[in-house]
């Protein structure tokens, strides 16, 4: 486990991270979850990974699987990880074909849920096939990664189309956002955030001017609506009178940390193509100021680890209740410890430390790593027990989708390995 290896020793951390990724996390997924008959991956596992509860396939997770397999194929080709590149590439393609042939709907959206063989099915009776713009964008993310690794234009075209349709619905206020609908009268940070992350990947794969404009527009929305100094609101009310609500006051530390590396990546993508990226949200120093506030705000001083939600002034979320399903989720689960904020935190804090040299980022990375690797991994050859209570004990609850997600952990570890293989800014300037 990389828990005892500091970010200040990048070479040792890279080796330890690669061992954990290939020997534990990927070893579990590749042994248990791929559907090599129909394409795709089975994700409806119990939290501990012992029981497959359903063979249904959420397109949200299938798109992420395409991304992961395509990027692992790339990492294998570059010699960054010891992986069967051909098998990963084949799984990326077969899953993409499953989504192309079954999930894409005539209106430019995607079906939310597929049966094992790819047949679209409503997630609930009478709900229709499409339920979430996030599913659309994760499918676009997967197609973009496959386009980048395969060089096949079809996947890039499909990624561009899905991104454009999703961005259009978001701009029109018509985007569905299951599993957590955004309350009328509020704007959700998650929407411009995901447009930045997916838009940058589509831009990398296609050099699309439309993708670049989507990224820049989403960054403007973050700057003008959600950001105040280094504080990022998760939901912003249209009416000033709603500023005292729990929805307006709560913060999501994991989202802030994930968004910081999205923004860094987007700025690099734009600049590689000679596109002006002048926002401070593309600068490492500004992102470091934003990122460092998240663990300070969200750290559980009693038990350790990152809280799922926090109040804007720290502690348990509070404020006037508006009677909302998402609000109930925040109030009921704010002190749980989830896999994805911890995985995202490790990568973001490492990345920004390596870019800025800031010692406070390194200290927070090492503190988070010690907690994360003590609490979450299931043991040698296993993945993570992804959902934990405040004290770190396994918790048998659904988070977002009723799945064991194959994405955040493996993605964060892979991105960490890729970044640690690169020279630091100081090394680059002296070369």
Q: Helicity, in percent?
A: 40-55%
Binned strand content = 5-15%
Please report the first level of CATH classification, the CATH class: Mainly Alpha
Number of domains: 1
- What is the 3D shape? globular
Oligomer: single chain
Query: What is the N-to-C succession of helices and strands?
Result: HEEEHHEHHEHHEEEHEHHEHEHHEHH
List the helices and strands and how they pair.
Blueprint: H1 10-32, E1 44-45, E2 52-54, E3 57-58, H2 59-77, H3 85-102, E4 113-114, H4 133-150, H5 153-171, E5 186-188, H6 190-206, H7 209-226, E6 227-228, E7 231-232, E8 235-237, H8 246-249, E9 250-251, H9 253-272, H10 284-298, E10 310-311, H11 325-333, E11 337-338, H12 339-356, H13 359-375, E12 387-388, H14 408-420, H15 425-430
Provide an overview of this structure:
The strands form 6 sheets. The protein has a two-stranded antiparallel sheet. A two-stranded antiparallel ribbon has the order 3-4. It is mainly α. It has a single domain (2-423), classed as Glycosyltransferase (Alpha/alpha barrel), CATH 1.50.10. The longest helix is centred in the first third of the chain and has 23 residues, at 10-32. Helices cover 54% and strands 6% of the residues. It is built from 15 helices and 12 strands. The mean pLDDT is 95. α1 runs antiparallel to α14 (408-420), α2 packs parallel to α4 and α5 (153-171) packs antiparallel against α6.
Observed structural traits:
single chain, 431 residues, mainly alpha, Glycosyltransferase, two-stranded antiparallel ribbon, 15 helices, 12 strands, 54% helix
Brief summary:
This protein is mainly alpha-helical. Helix content is 54%, strand content 6%. Helix 2 (59-77) runs parallel beside helix 14, helix 4 (133-150) runs parallel beside helix 6 and helix 12 packs parallel to helix 14.
């Amino acid at each position: 486990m990389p828990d005892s290896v500091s970010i200040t020793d990048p070479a040792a951390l890279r080796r330890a991270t690669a061992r954990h990724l290939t020997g534990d996390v990927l070893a579990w997924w590749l042994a248990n979850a791929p559907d090599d008959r129909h394409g795709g991956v089975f994700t409806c596992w119990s939290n501990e990974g012992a029981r497959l509860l359903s063979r249904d396939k959420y397109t949200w997770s299938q798109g992420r699987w395409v991304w992961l397999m395509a990027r692992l194929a790339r990492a294998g080709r570059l010699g960054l990880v010891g992986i069967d590149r051909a098998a990963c590439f084949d799984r990326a393609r077969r899953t993409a074909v499953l989504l192309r042939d079954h999930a894409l709907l005539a209106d430019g959206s995607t079906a939310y849920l597929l049966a094992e063989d790819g047949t679209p099915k409503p997630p609930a009776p009478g709900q229709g096939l499409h339920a979430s713009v996030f599913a659309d964008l994760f499918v676009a993310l997967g197609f973009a990664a496959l386009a980048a690794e395969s060089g096949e234009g079809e996947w890039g075209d499909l990624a561009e189309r899905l991104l454009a349709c999703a961005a259009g619905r978001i701009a029109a206020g018509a985007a569905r956002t299951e599993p957590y609908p955004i309350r009328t009268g509020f704007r959700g940070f998650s929407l411009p955030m995901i447009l930045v992350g997916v838009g940058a990947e589509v831009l990398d794969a296609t050099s699309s001017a439309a993708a670049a404009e989507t990224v820049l527009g989403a960054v403007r929305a973050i700057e003008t609506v959600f950001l105040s100094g280094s504080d990022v609101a998760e939901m912003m009310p249209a009416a000033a009178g709603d500023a005292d609500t729990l929805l307006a006051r709560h913060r999501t530390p994991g989202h802030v940390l994930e968004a910081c590396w999205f923004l860094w990546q987007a700025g690099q993508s734009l600049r590689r193509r000679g596109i002006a990226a002048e926002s401070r949200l593309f600068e490492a120093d500004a992102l470091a100021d934003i990122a460092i506030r998240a663990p300070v705000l969200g750290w559980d001083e009693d038990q350790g680890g990152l809280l799922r939600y926090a109040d804007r002034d720290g502690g348990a979320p509070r404020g006037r209740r508006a009677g909302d399903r998402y609000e109930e989720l925040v109030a009921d689960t704010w002190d749980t410890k989830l896999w994805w904020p911890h995985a995202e935190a490790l990568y973001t804090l490492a990345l920004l430390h390596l870019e800025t040299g800031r010692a406070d980022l390194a200290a927070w990375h090492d503190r988070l790593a010690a907690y994360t690797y003590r609490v979450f991994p299931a043991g040698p050859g296993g993945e993570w027990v992804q959902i934990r209570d405040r004290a770190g004990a396994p918790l048998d609850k659904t988070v977002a989708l009723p799945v064991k997600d194959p994405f955040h952990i493996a993605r964060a570890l892979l991105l960490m390995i890729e970044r640690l293989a690169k020279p630091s800014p100081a090394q680059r300037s002296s070369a």
